[in-house]
Amino acid sequence: MTAHGIVLVDCPDEVGLIHRITGVLRGDGLSIDSSDQFVDVARQHFFFRAEVVATQPGAAADPLADERLRQALAAVLPAAAVVRVTRPERRPIVVCATREPHCLGELLLLDAVGDLPGRIVAVISNHGVLRELTDRFGVPFVHLPAEGVDRDAHEAALAAAIDAHAPALVVLARYMRVLSAGFVTRYPGRIVNIHHSFLPAFAGAQAYRQAYERGVKLIGATAHVVTAELDAGPIIAQDVIDVDHAATPERMARAGRDVEKLVLARAVRLLLEDRVFVHGGRTVVFD
Amino acid sequence: MTAHGIVLVDCPDEVGLIHRITGVLRGDGLSIDSSDQFVDVARQHFFFRAEVVATQPGAAADPLADERLRQALAAVLPAAAVVRVTRPERRPIVVCATREPHCLGELLLLDAVGDLPGRIVAVISNHGVLRELTDRFGVPFVHLPAEGVDRDAHEAALAAAIDAHAPALVVLARYMRVLSAGFVTRYPGRIVNIHHSFLPAFAGAQAYRQAYERGVKLIGATAHVVTAELDAGPIIAQDVIDVDHAATPERMARAGRDVEKLVLARAVRLLLEDRVFVHGGRTVVFD
Amino acid sequence: MTAHGIVLVDCPDEVGLIHRITGVLRGDGLSIDSSDQFVDVARQHFFFRAEVVATQPGAAADPLADERLRQALAAVLPAAAVVRVTRPERRPIVVCATREPHCLGELLLLDAVGDLPGRIVAVISNHGVLRELTDRFGVPFVHLPAEGVDRDAHEAALAAAIDAHAPALVVLARYMRVLSAGFVTRYPGRIVNIHHSFLPAFAGAQAYRQAYERGVKLIGATAHVVTAELDAGPIIAQDVIDVDHAATPERMARAGRDVEKLVLARAVRLLLEDRVFVHGGRTVVFD
Amino acid sequence: MTAHGIVLVDCPDEVGLIHRITGVLRGDGLSIDSSDQFVDVARQHFFFRAEVVATQPGAAADPLADERLRQALAAVLPAAAVVRVTRPERRPIVVCATREPHCLGELLLLDAVGDLPGRIVAVISNHGVLRELTDRFGVPFVHLPAEGVDRDAHEAALAAAIDAHAPALVVLARYMRVLSAGFVTRYPGRIVNIHHSFLPAFAGAQAYRQAYERGVKLIGATAHVVTAELDAGPIIAQDVIDVDHAATPERMARAGRDVEKLVLARAVRLLLEDRVFVHGGRTVVFD
Lengths: 287, 287, 287, 287
What we know:
The structure is a homotetramer. Chain A is of the alpha/beta class. Helix content of chain A is 31%, strand content 31%. Chain A is built from 8 helices and 13 strands. In chain A, the strands form 3 sheets. A 7-stranded mixed β-sheet of chain A has the order 7-6-5-8-9-10-11, with helices on both faces. A 4-stranded antiparallel β-sheet of chain A has the order 2-3-1-4, with helices on one face. Chains in contact: A-B, A-C, A-D, B-C, B-D, C-D.
């Protein structure tokens, strides 16, 4: 490990964990630029993230160095510890979307202007309508129609299309199909979804109509890691936008699009920068 | 009407309403300082609020002038029109609370420092714990224990205690008893309540524990007009506060208290300034 | 005027203005869907905006109808009244930018996905770097290098390039050249600019470095109408994003880009929907 | 140290600091509940905060244990290290105010309802108007008139009144006198101030009038540590509230009061919970 790296550890909490981790880093000639640590006291679980730099120019640049560091850390930590050593590089992302362009467009644009710490390698959709937008950014568009195809077959095709790009992250940018538990478990902790959120809660196709009828004053969005239980995965980011009585269902929907794209982009950035841990149904986000 | 007055109209929409209203105001020697108008297109309902001043010093100061204006407006409007003429005066409020001091304290403080467009004339509680706080502000405290009393009897006592003060507004500042439909209909559109709100929704005594378990990133509060249907009345104001993974259930609860008191105070101010219309399950708020 | 139109009036305040306006509208067979009215009491100035629909299908569709309505309104209003009658159509916009893509990209994207109430007909830049992004959206890119050209000549070329498209609005999306008073007065109230804003204020190329040194906790952005006095034009929209001590100058700059693009897009929408009046150095925004 | 303690370290950065600190903590039988660490890379300075608990019930409860821990930490750290060991106890605060009650009232109320991690032991004012509010909460009020008293004499009296209570923190809650550099250096890092903030900046008695004239859309507040340079001390917390064109200077001032009291209360809580480091003109806030 030469230049910059990120070290991530999570494990059952016990005395002296940071002391042991920092001992290994120091022994490896690594200096800590920044670090975050958190203990979930209720669950007795420990989370650690550090950005490190090599203190001597001669430190090994070969990829094996990362794996050696990982093993050295694992050797001093509890057997259940999950240790990761990563580089702040622009890893590949696959975006799945259906018809709505706002979230996909935001991600394509951030990527195009260099404001996304990753790169979109493919867009997959069950409809063709987003092809034109995707083409504008020179990103491959894969159209996988779902009508007349049985769900297992469609998911198999989807998985194949995703796996062809070996993405670090799969982003559901208003992808309107429910994914099976079997599909989701192929990409543990690596699928992120966005949905609108309301106080009180409304669901379904008529959500903005219901929100209007109820006269809500806030329109929200929630980005979460996708787990087998639909829309109940660990929350990464949330935000809201004010609306008032004069907002028609259409204007509420526009406010919803604005907040959805922001919240999804924030969650994608956090995931790509390895700032999110998932444990016990909730996230730890070192922002 | 001499100095300043507020004119409020709501009725089924039809052509020429503003023209007729402003004709009456003009004929009465009243100038419009500010006005808001809104048509709920879906429900074909019209809402109007104006702050007016007399253009000539000799305008009648007697209370009858307001009633005459009200009748003159009603005469040119549809039969179903609700017309109100009010003065920006500090009208009486009764606050009901149970054990939690944050919302009550905020209102008492705003009143004490002159930042509430009303005055708290009594605090009624089913517990005694808030007496000390109330006494600090020299406001009468009425303790109406509910234990061992049947609900009808308790509500009758509560209504009597409220009515003794003829309040313009009854504020439920974390009042933890469910009010019967019969009770609520005694004070149509004149009871306001606050409750915490979450995305997704959690309810009950363990709400902050659930929010913690779910790892929410926002804690919200909703103030609403109380109707017969519990916690489903028309929303007046909502807001949220950010929290993160490090927030314990206790810190989430503190964030909840902070946002609840703000949102309730905002709703109370809006109501006291006659800025809120309720129609068809939603509010129109001319802020 | 048949389907939908917007009526805008501002003039010195006097008694009966709304009554006169609504009388004309009613006489013309127009019903008011929504309207806003405001009197700036300090300046004794009146502002009115209404969205109107024809109540009878036979109402004239020809463009002359709008002008007739405008004249009918002017006839009953003070001589100094400014009366406009517009249609909610997607009017042409020219965007000027220099090197930074975030604001331009947001506008191009909103236009491409149908979320901008206008259409970008040209992008003009004093640098070539944004051509690629502009080309992605099929929008003409005009490169007007400023180096080695004297300011008057450059502004003349700029004005010619703008005027070739007869835009309703000129958007400075991080256009980094100071425009002369003479240039600005060619487009009164029709140029909008965005800049970052800080508490306390920092300026110049090193603004984010200064903000970092000072440890600010908020990064803001301000969109304003451009007037002859640099960066001091009437404010249309403002917003902020939280940052903390861990934000490097680079992350602060990214937060700045995020909030700038949001605030500029909001201001552009407000302007295109004819929701902004400018008077006496400030705006009235009917949102 | 038995139950809970807080360990704070800041010093020039060098390799292995966390390893050494955690070694000492571990050797002392202390477990880390939560910790935060930050390196200001530009200044090469290290900041560390941990909440610790004793892992064995027999750990010494006497106050000497804290000092022994402090010395043990200092022994392994650079000579320039500042090491503090504190307990999460409700330390004494003195509040200085002049005429405005909103910030003082918020702090008194939070203290009264148990939502302030400290206790107000005295209120000192150069005017008498806040005595009644202070009396409501049973807090001693010290009136130190400044008129006709020379500044040095007044500051000497102020210092004596403060020192009589040996406060951990001096809160300027709209205290409208400028303090001399000599006075401020008596309480290094222990005086916190609040002031309103605007984009762009306005100052002086007519700030809200200027903000109104300029048509700002946000009213902000900044809480900062007081240093010799007036209003330029390290920023602890900032926030804003939306306003619109209809907000009169009076309503802007009310919005200002609302945001000022919130931001000041947040800063006071952060300081009392030992979450704020001051270094090189900026703060590190472990929230």
